[in-house]
Amino acid sequence: MFENKLIKESVHATRFIMSWVREGGKLDRSGEGYDGFRKWLKSLELSDEEIYDIMDIASNGKLELETLAKNFIKSNFIKA
I need a surface site. Which of 11, 29, 34, 53 has the fewest CB within 10 A? Predict the structure, then answer.
């Protein structure tokens, strides 16, 4: 089970993920964007354990939900 841990005791892991994505960063299923995301997290002076916790959540989508989201986006002409 995933835990949306607090990083530096103040920011949930998912906030880092969404901040990256909202500003144009990629985290796709083929692995695109993860190196840049990890480098950004390191630039924030997060510990290796904190980076691991964030990356674990970022890289573990649920395939069924990803497929549903992809199909919805394609069928509703929403540009992602």
Answer: 29
